[in-house]
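Bit of a strange request maybe. I'm writing a small parser for structure token strings and I need a real example to test against, not something I typed by hand. Could someone generate the tokens for this chain?
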Amino acid sequence: MSLDGLRFALGTLSVFPVRVTRVDRVVAGRAMALAPAVGLALGAVAALPLLLPGPPLLGAALALGLLAVLTRGLHLDGLADLADGLGSGKPAAQALDIMKKSDIGPFGVTAILFTVLVQAAALTETGAIGLVTACVAGRLTLAWACRPAVPAARPDGLGATVAGTVRTRTALLVTVAALVVTAALPLRPGVPVRELVAPPVALLAGLAAASFLLVRARRRLGGITGDVLGALVETAAAAALVVYALVG
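Reply from user aminoacidic:
Good idea to test on real output. This should exercise your parser:
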């Protein structure tokens, strides 16, 4: 039973083949709390192209492409859908209907292009540690978005399954663990102080950026959906990479 949450997290947040045998709100809460650990694994695998010889921009593009494959592109899809919903200017019910459509509108296309360009540009400066930190930061936002204070925007779907399943205390503990892990990533003899502080600072910056988007989504839509969660992941990752590039 203790592995149910990890299986659900891997099955939902990655393309890794796992057998999900139990799905309920208890398991969903564990999964969202374990999401940063999944991000750590995703970042480690996706960072492999950055270790290859060649232009940094090429490595960054390959790494982000691999990350999209590892996540089935679901987070990018969520980002596009939320951009279309919020950009429509429609009331909550109509905006949610727009987000459910399979096509992508101009706001969605723009959001994906801008976010991926920013991520790629920043990734050329941060390297593998920056990508791992960004992946952890993106999934950390899921724990905070699934606190009891944040309702679901719809009565069904992924948002309804995970909304309110993570205690604030758990989110805080997961955040502390994520800060410790990311701070340890650049540890080596003689590492400059700015390189040591860059990962945790970037992690918190990603969490802050996603929090602003979450507030906006709650006001416009009434709560979270699976698309909102995906958009939070991509927003936090982009912000973390930018701050890491500036600080590190």
